[in-house]
């Protein structure tokens, strides 16, 4: 309202001539505890604001009395006598009308155990309490009374309201990586699995197998095709798909069958001594 | 020509920047004007709209033509309802019909008055609680020579809809208490000292207090009230509820707020209409896309633990140029990766060097199922953005698992050594010498 009031100062001056300014006399507040003890009672200074805010506990009650007067005149009943509770940090505001008698006397009290509906939801910051006096015939006035500290309360929030603000980020919790035994352990057991080869190599000299027919044309193709079959299985394990291994395997198996028959026939001939 | 020149001079302040503009959703406006109001009484506002490129069609509330919706297609993009006192409307301007019109994404600008009309009853459906009939907003502040119901209101400086620096506006009409509905967009609030009352003497003070007390009708007072309030439906059609039609009229627009300073009514009215008619704060999604982190084309499905990149292109409507332009100014855009519940929610950040593109990179959760990329951007006053793309996330294929695990080395060694052993044995047996046969041969 600041700049606006400034803008309208000339008008205000014009009006003030024919109507008295409203003001209040002997404003006083009392804080009572739930068992009726007077905790604090003070005259409110209109010229300078009380340094210490008025603090209300959850069961305390506040009593406020004042008289509305025309400046330098009689007590009057204005059209509008509103207490305004305002939280500057959140912009929450509550307006409470106060009953004023024809002579201008006003009394307002409330208990924090049953706070009036007009009390706005409040956070840590104190509520600024001011009195608004408005009238059709007198010049209106706003009076700053005091700062009020009340127990914090929450405002009612629409269930959809949070979707109109950034929502908290969500991180997915992944399953932990599978545990693998140390590579050294795997290597030791691999060594144990391969150890029979040491035995075989050790005994090789004693056995001294002779392979006179290794490169014979009837034996070699079969040995090679057996090797190819084994290589094919290794290849399958590394990258081939099932369809491919069936196709290649069928070809290799046919070759192995043909060469195998030839090889076995030739061995049979050796052994029966026909050759 | 002379008239439009005159109007231009009168509204120089507001219109200089706004010529050659347009709405993002079309330029045809139906003005429903009650017979007691004359078009000339709103010439600044209507001429301002026409200057922006809107074509206005006028109709009385009880006229049957021109129809608003024909064959289920709306014939107007926006409707101005300046019929605050009218109690009976033609069938296609009834409250139900207006809701239907909104569902067709036609925008509304509705003026109310302290009188109870079908429109003021409709306001309750938009979370606006009006005082009982016959209770206009009045304020004794600041002291002035106008009636208490004609109130100067400061225009908030921090509202994205309104031009900053607009002078205070004159208002006369009915206030609205705002529900907690997040679809509401408060545009102009009542002054803190104002309240709604039906008394015109100081002796009415008792009635004001009694109404506020328990069992009374309640008190409409203070800056929690709105006097001009916007509402955006879930599919982004916009409604503006103004407490009084005089706000848009020439009388208030020409009335001085102080000596030598004209009120901001002309500017405010056009700003309000600009928001209502989808000129301001209008966004759209141009396209969305997703791909693996080291690829560029979208996949039909993703595997768990894949690194996925999602990007979205957003444009904002620029009314001054009547064109859409890529917009990188959103700072709080978020992406949800959702299967029933969001599993991942991460920020979509503007990509440097690519205007209008926002991107997020994240690892797919290790849960397989049908997921959705969901962007649901809702902020007060802005067009709501919603995009949902379904994509399955599958477990790895049989050959998608890691090979050559160190834990399986003994098994690999065993299998390979068996194969090699078999091959070696076969070679030895096939190629070996049959000693017995040889011996018998020698003895022969």
| Total of domains of chain B | 3
Tell me the distance between the termini of chain A: 124 Å
> What's the average pLDDT of chain A?
84
What summary fits the major beta sheet of chain B? 9 strands, mixed
Strand content of chain A: 15-25%
Protein name (chain B): Dolichyl-diphosphooligosaccharide-protein glycosyltransferase
Could you give a short description of this structure?
Chain A is of the alpha+beta class. Chain A is built from 5 helices and 9 strands. The N and C termini of chain B lie far apart (137 Å).
Question: Layout of SSEs?
Answer:
The complex is a heterodimer of chains A (275) and B (444).
Chain A: H1 2-7, H2 9-16, E1 22-32, E2 38-43, E3 54-55, E4 61-70, E5 80-86, E6 93-97, E7 105-111, E8 127-134, E9 141-149, H3 183-207, H4 220-238, H5 242-272
Parallel strand pairs in A: 3-9
Antiparallel strand pairs in A: 1-2, 1-4, 4-7, 5-6, 5-8, 8-9
Chain B: H1 2-10, H2 12-15, E1 28-33, H3 43-51, E2 55-59, E3 69-70, E4 73-74, E5 78-82, H4 95-103, E6 107-111, H5 118-123, E7 128-129, E8 137-138, E9 151-153, E10 169-171, E11 176-178, E12 184-189, E13 195-196, H6 205-212, E14 225-232, E15 238-242, H7 250-254, E16 256-258, E17 261-262, H8 265-276, E18 283-292, E19 302-303, E20 307-318, E21 323-326, E22 334-339, E23 341-347, E24 349-350, E25 357-363, E26 369-377, E27 385-394, H9 409-431, H10 435-443
Parallel strand pairs in B: 1-2, 1-5, 5-6, 6-15, 19-27
Antiparallel strand pairs in B: 3-4, 7-11, 8-13, 9-10, 11-14, 12-14, 14-15, 16-17, 18-20, 20-21, 20-25, 22-23, 22-26, 24-25, 26-27
Helix pairs in contact in B: 1-3, 3-8
